[in-house]
Amino acid sequence: MTKDIFSVMAMSVVDGLPETAGELARSALAGGTPALEAVEKGFLPGIRKVGELWESGEYFLPELIASAEAMKAAMSVLRPALEKGGGTARSAGKIVIGTVEGDIHDIGKNLVAAMLSAHGFEVVDLGADVKLVSFIETAEAEKADIICLSALLTTTMIGQRRLIDLLVEHGLRHRFQVMIGGAPTTRAWAEEIGADGYAENANAAVREALELRQKAAP
Ligand code: B12
């Protein structure tokens, strides 16, 4: 596969074209390109570029969502091949994510989930308005590494604190790292409630999650 095709893959993500991205992924596999090569040389540089455009203020929410969808479309084609590929694409870690109970905002959470998944995390997305106990039950059942909690309302931020308290009460605090986010939250809030990580956007969430996994590595 030529360098040009990889650039076209990257551009399909930068331009937010899910159908094109899916097609390119399918034809790469059909043409014998290893899935990992398609991800690392094609689609990942695309989503990294999108992160830069978002952080520099050139991309706004609609572009970000379209790009995340394109990345998701490519990854859904490539993931089975990556998983079959003899462990070449090692999972970066397992994440259970959701918006806390009482809160139906899910756009930011979906973006964070898509970006984490695009960067090699296995993501179990519980959706929005998720009961705190469901986060814990799922994290235990899935043997997750990180629980990610989104809250967009000042009234539901408190759910993030409660979840950490629940983990402590059940003697499970050491089992999971907890990362929080959502517009009203801050790093100071994360520190106050004893969360392990915080990020203000989806791109920073990927960096923070990778750092958390590194810190936890033996
Ligand atoms: C869209 C929206 C809605 C939509 C939600 C649609 C959906 N499916 O999500 C609808 C119309 C349904 C809605 C409803 C309500 N909303 Co509303 N909504 C918004 C709005 C305009 C945008 C939110 C959004 O999607 N932002 C874009 C995303 C990309 O940003 P984000 O969510 O912040 O996510 C980013 C980061 O925060 C971070 N992040 C997010 N989650 C996580 C998680 C982790 C682990 C990490 C690391 C990072 C992270 O990364 C994301 C990507 O960069 C905000 C205004 C605002 N400025 O935030 C109000 C806002 C959040 N809503 C508000 C309110 C009050 C409500 C309602 C209560 C209104 C009402 N009276 O019914 C209801 C809530 C009902 C409920 N029980 O939840 C208030 C909250 C005020 C407050 N301080 O509590 C806001 C701030 C508007 C305002 N200025 O008054 N809302």
Describe the protein.
The protein has about 220 residues and is of the alpha/beta class. The protein has two domains: about 5-85, Methionine synthase domain (Methyltransferase, Methionine Synthase (B12-binding Domains), Chain A, domain 1, Orthogonal Bundle); about 95-215, Rossmann fold. About 60% of the residues lie in helices and about 10% in strands. The protein has a five-stranded parallel beta sheet, sandwiched between helices. Helix 2 runs parallel beside helix 4 (about 60-85). Bound molecules: cobalamin. The site of cobalamin has 29 residues, from helix 5, strand 3, strand 4 and helix 9.
Provide the succession of SSEs.
HHHHEHEHEHEHEH
Major sheet details: 5 strands, parallel
CATH topology name of the largest domain, in short, is Rossmann fold
Uncertain runs are none
CATH H-level superfamily of the largest domain: Cobalamin-binding domain
Which class best fits the helix and strand makeup?
Answer: alpha/beta
Report strand %.
5-15%
- Summed over residues and divided by their number, the pLDDT gives a mean of 92
Radius of gyration, Cα only, in angstroms?
Answer: 18 Å
**Strand order in the largest sheet:** 2-1-3-4-5
Number of separate structural domains? 2
CATH class of the largest domain: Alpha Beta
Number of helices: 9
